[in-house]
Amino acid sequence: MFKAVFANKYFMRFAPVGAAALLILGLLTGPALAAGAQEDIGAGQAEAIALEQAGLGEKDVSRLRTEQDRDDGAPEYEVEFFTDETEYDYTIDAATGAVWKESRELLRRGAQGDGDIGAEAAQQAALTHAALAAGDVQDLAARRELDDSYLEYEVRWLTETHEYEYVIDAAEGTVWQWEKSMLPAARLGLVNSPEQTAEDIGAQAARDAALAKAGLTLDQVTRMHVEWESRDDYFDHHHDEHHADHGVYEVSFCQDGYEYECVVDCATGEVLEYEREFDD
């Protein structure tokens, strides 16, 4: 599976939406999605989708393994298989067959050459592999790391629908590892929908509003977590004077021993709640 090195101050991952949010957003995206939640494509179909996504047949792979799981109430299939050179991992929506996440990792790297291509070239190698340009992405970042004596660059960025994470050989620019994960809003069909553009500022804007309230920037914090919550769920758990006409984003992060928690109105970007406490 993909390394956990990206869960740091440079590599934010938007948390999956909770089960209650899935139910409420199902009403926004139409009856088909709500009905699909009652169906299950089955392990065999999930494997077929993953293999097709990889451009492989069942005879081309070994150690094919599939497990059913739930992510915050949403059913999914985890599919894993290998070729002689590469490990493949997929997360498939059990109701619709959509590919939520895919990753690949080279099993053998070999001896590393001398030299360092630099962060900019590493970013370009990753973007070229993903068939994207710098102008197509947001929050493009790279950092150099030494992992088991291998010098590498960890590169990440966001698009409107996905988060990308790459590990690039610092000497030659070879792609050693990559992962592409669908963002929660895209999973629920809200990207570019009337609800998203008219009534929802989006997870990134909510994150930025929370950081601005704290007087911090993204590269100063760790353990960034952003999660959408429906208006009804918010009021069920918060009996105070705050009001939100729509849903809210709950944003949390840490910095220098302190934990920050913010609640941001998803329509206006107003910070409804803000807390900072020592993280012991």
Gyration radius from CA atoms, angstroms:
20 Å
Which of globular, elongated, flat, extended, rod-shaped describes the shape?
globular
Distance between the termini: 30 Å
Order of helices and strands: HHHEEEEHEEEEHHHEHEEE
Binned, the helix content reads 10-25%
CATH architecture of the largest domain: Roll
Number of self-contained structural domains: 2
CATH class of the largest domain: Alpha Beta
CATH fold-level label of the largest domain? Nuclear Transport Factor 2, Chain: A
Uncertain stretches = 1-38, 190-197, 239-244
Kindly report the spatial arrangement of strands forming the biggest sheet. Answer: 1-2-3-4-8-7-6-5
Structural class: alpha+beta
- Count of β-strands: 12
Would you kindly provide a written description of the structure presented here, covering whatever features stand out?
- The chain is of the alpha+beta class and 280 residues long.
- It folds into 2 domains: 183 residues, Roll (Nuclear Transport Factor 2, Chain: A); 79 residues, Roll (Nuclear Transport Factor 2, Chain: A), CATH 3.10.450.
- Helices cover 25% and strands 36% of the residues.
- The strands form 2 sheets. It has an 8-stranded antiparallel beta sheet.
- Strand 7 and strand 8 form a beta hairpin.
- It is globular.
- The two termini are 30 Å apart.
Secondary structure: elements and pairs:
Blueprint: H1 19-29, H2 31-36, H3 43-54, E1 62-71, E2 74-82, E3 86-93, E4 99-106, H4 119-129, E5 138-147, E6 150-158, E7 162-169, E8 175-182, H5 184-187, H6 194-199, H7 203-214, E9 222-229, H8 231-237, E10 248-255, E11 258-265, E12 271-278
Antiparallel strand pairs: 1-2, 2-3, 3-4, 4-8, 5-6, 6-7, 7-8, 9-10, 10-11, 11-12
